[in-house]
Structure formats: C-alpha cells, structure tokens
Amino acid sequence: MEQESKWIRDIQRGGSRQAAERxxxxxxxxxxxxxxxxxxxxxxxxxxxxSIFLAVLRALPSYDPKKxxxxxxxxxxxxxxxxxxxxxxxxxxTPLEEIxxxxxxxxxxxxxxxxxxxxxEGYVSGLSPSLQAVFRLRLYGERSFGEIAAALGxxxxxxxxxxxxxxxxxxxxxxxxx
Length: 178
Description:
The protein is mainly alpha-helical. It folds into 2 domains: about 1-90, Rna Polymerase Sigma Factor, Chain: A (Orthogonal Bundle), CATH 1.10.1740; about 110-178, Arc Repressor Mutant, subunit A. The chain is about 75% helix and about 0% strand. It has 8 helices and no strands. About 20% of the residues are buried. The model is unreliable at about 100-105 (pLDDT under 50).
C-alpha cells in the first residue's frame, strides 16, 4: 500500500514511466478478470482493460487520495468504461471452434443456464448506468457493498437497497416458479 502511494506520487509529480508500469502490473490481472467476467470475450476484455489503464494514467494527476482509495477510484473508472463499451457494443459472435461443449449429463440445463444468464444480462443492460454498475461490481467484480458505495459515491445502505431490489426484479422477471 505504501509502495502504491509512492508510485502514484511519482506519476503525479513527474510522470514516472517505471512507476506507471508497476502500478499497471499491480492491478492488471484483477481488472482484466473483472472486465472478462462482464464481456465473456478474451480480446474484448484485453482491449477494454488497456483502455481502462490508459484512462487511469491520464486521470491520475487529478486523483485525490483523500476522496477515495486508489483501488476504489480504479474500479469506478473500470465500471464506467465497461458500461460505455456495452452501450457502444455490437452483437458478438463466437466462432464454433471456440465453443466448448461439456461432456456432462446436464448439458441441457447448462444451455438453459447460459441462455438465462444472457437474458438477465440483456435485462440489466437496459437499466440505468448506476444500477448496472452496482449489479456488475457485486456479481462480476465481487466487491463488498462498502467498496461499491465508495466507487459510486453513494451510501452503503443505498447500494444494498438497489442491489436487493434489483435481485427481486430479476427473480420476478426470470423465475418461472414465482
């Protein structure tokens, strides 16, 4: 943490290339996984992760550690970039040779699960950017409600309320047993 603060100061003061490289190395895999879980495509996740770090390094001179922890600030930028990319996204096709067919007996249920997840993701994509961010940071980013609240500039109770209300709406919309 102390080393991270030093890298940030070095970048803010003189644009230290070495400090920037270390900071990116420190968080690259974590942000890539966060993005990949939302895009489901390796190339898109790599491109978007690169775009996120370019935005972070450009904005770093204005970063204020008194307002938010660096990690929180980073995830706010990442979540916003993912939302922007979804708004601009084109339909994605996956080549047949990239699709792995499971050999398990519950293949049909897995197909239905994948279809359900795609339908839920489509539903969430139609919601406000704030609700999308809450849902995706919690589900894909595996962030705590406190971290999400800090990243979005909201209270923790508001974030919890939005998340659980959204889960209720999703249940009503997609659960055939309700």
